[in-house]
Structure to design on (555 residues):
């Protein structure tokens, strides 16, 4: 069968085989999951059930339930003093994933360059290419996985259209203070670039307050923000997110959205209303829990001698395993087969990140502690092997 | 509430070392804080939540909620009579409540007969007790925030971006 050239060109994920290996194994401890281990708080689930009982089973407006858009507008106003109109500046999407696809399709002309700091979430590059754009990856490794004014400036040319900016970041957990963000804003405003700001982990920022990009002075007109309920409210499976930004971009996104998706499931939208209405205390509780786990896992990795930058947010640690001499895939595979612990190899987020693994601490204390001790076992085992092979060589 | 208490309330067996790591404090300081809470009576006891229906020893305890109507005493109100009641070992909880009755007791006994005897012989004859209504518990679903069911299985897929 003749498959579209564009799709054929898309690289299948290099670590699909590893994922399959994990999915085929039983009784493993998984620190490889990109979603909360909590179940959606009951009042939110109950609101979904109630909406079904009441017979809310129809389409909604393409843009999403007005009630939900209004609640989001209130939320933005109340928490960040941001003014967005529920009429035409907010769009309900199938998670940030769809929001991102829409944003790219709405702004990219063939050949436009899109800046993507790496390591970053896996869909940014492929979706950009699918829309005819050219992803330009900015490796942030030498700056402690942080995008700096200098490196950003270096990658901009006449063809550059936009920056995809995800903070707190998946897979590193790195985030930015207001001052750091202002430096990024200066560059974007100077070159009139659009910031597609993926702030899905914004609520899960531990040591300082998350600063939405749109709140930075002078940035609002250049910012399209993608957010949602998946991570902070533990609602990944509901698939409901939202985008807010300038009218023209939201209108363009809505055009694509109305033909492809029509609208987000009404049940999920009703549940999301309840999340905004009564879910805050659950978010705070889960956040405190993640923060404690972060301390536990960073301390554990440090005492095992595995370097990692302490994450500011999200629930991931991007740890270096370079000293083991193994590749990311080699390490992750042995950890899985010998110790029954699953993590994601760093190469999932770009070839350059061989030597790293992404560890998710969205897991209970007991799991985290047991996994750390098993990682320790593997490290010991590797050390002994090295010793043996050296003596053997002599 | 202090986060230290939040951690212990969820799992009293969390080690002092782990708590220190989670809160980025010195182990010594956590130990001291816990000691202080114990001394002040903020932390009263460390208990285990047991699902007695599954503790296969053949002994099923019977529980009853008892509404008690009280004639309050001059100068003492309900406190003195409440104390007289809660000191009975059968009484596992005792609350003063608003509404149509005054004290709510939770009483435990090895069978219905024991509980009935407690009501008839100890509770009702008291001078200040004007009347009681006894509700035997038939099934426990949730207690002190714990749902009495087997552990739920993990529903997440084992790996994802």
């Amino acid at each position: 069968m003749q498959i579209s050239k564009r799709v054929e060109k898309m690289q299948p994920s290099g670590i699909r085989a590893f994922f399959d290996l994990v999915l085929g194994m039983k009784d493993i401890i998984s620190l490889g999951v990109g979603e909360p281990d909590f179940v959606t708080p009951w009042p939110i689930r109950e609101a979904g059930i109630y909406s079904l009982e009441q017979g809310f089973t129809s389409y909604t407006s393409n843009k999403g339930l007005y009630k939900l858009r209004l609640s989001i507008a209130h939320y933005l106003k109340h928490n960040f003093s941001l003014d967005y109109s529920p009429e035409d500046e907010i769009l309900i999407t199938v998670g940030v994933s769809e929001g991102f696809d829409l944003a790219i399709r709405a702004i990219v002309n063939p050949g436009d360059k899109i800046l993507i700091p790496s390591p970053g979430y896996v869909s940014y590059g492929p979706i950009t290419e699918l829309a005819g754009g050219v992803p330009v990856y900015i490796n942030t490794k030498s700056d402690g996985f942080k995008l700096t004014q200098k490196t950003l400036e270096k990658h901009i040319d006449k063809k550059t259209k936009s920056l995809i900016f995800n903070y707190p970041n998946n897979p590193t957990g790195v985030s930015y203070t207001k001052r750091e963000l202002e430096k990024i804003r200066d560059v974007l405003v100077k070159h009139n670039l659009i910031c597609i700001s993926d702030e899905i982990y914004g609520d899960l920022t531990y040591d300082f307050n998350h600063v939405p990009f749109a709140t930075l002075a002078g940035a609002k007109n250049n910012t399209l923000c993608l957010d949602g309920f998946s991570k902070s409210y533990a609602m990944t499976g509901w698939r409901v997110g939202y985008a807010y930004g300038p009218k023209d971009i939201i209108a363009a996104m809505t055009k694509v959205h109305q033909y492809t998706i029509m609208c987000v499931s009404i049940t999920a939208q009703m549940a999301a209303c309840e999340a905004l209405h009564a879910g805050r205390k659950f978010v705070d509780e889960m956040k405190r829990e993640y923060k404690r786990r972060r301390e536990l896992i960073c301390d554990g990795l440090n005492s095992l001698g595995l370097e990692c930058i302490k994450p500011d947010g999200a629930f991931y640690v991007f740890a270096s395993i370079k000293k083991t001499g193994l590749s990311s895939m080699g390490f992750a595979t042995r950890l899985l087969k010998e110790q029954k612990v699953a993590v994601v190899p760093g190469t999932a987020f770009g070839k350059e990140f061989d030597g790293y693994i992404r560890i998710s601490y969205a897991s209970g204390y007991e799991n985290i502690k047991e996994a750390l001790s098993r990682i320790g076992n593997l490290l010991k085992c590797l050390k002994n092997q090295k010793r043996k092979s050296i003596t053997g060589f002599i | 509430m202090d986060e230290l208490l939040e951690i212990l309330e969820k799992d009293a067996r969390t080690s002092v070392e782990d708590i220190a790591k989670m809160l980025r404090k010195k182990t010594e300081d956590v130990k001291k804080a816990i000691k202080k809470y114990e001394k002040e009576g903020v932390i009263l006891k460390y208990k285990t939540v047991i699902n007695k229906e599954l503790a296969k020893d053949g002994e099923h305890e019977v529980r009853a909620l008892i509404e008690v109507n009280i004639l309050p005493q001059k100068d003492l109100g309900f406190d003195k009579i409440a104390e007289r009641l809660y000191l009975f070992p059968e009484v596992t909880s005792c609350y003063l409540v608003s509404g149509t009755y005054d004290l709510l007791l939770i009483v435990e006994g090895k069978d219905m007969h024991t509980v009935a005897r407690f009501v008839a012989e100890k509770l009702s004859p008291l001078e200040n007790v004007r009347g009681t209504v006894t509700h035997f518990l038939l099934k426990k679903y949730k207690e002190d925030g714990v749902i009495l069911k087997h552990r739920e299985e993990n529903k997440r897929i084992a790996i994802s971006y």
Summary: The interface with chain A takes residues 3, 6-7, 11, 14, 18, 21-24, 154-161 of chain B (CB under 8 Å). The first strand of chain B starts at residue 62 and ends at 70. The first helix of chain B runs from residue 3 to 10.
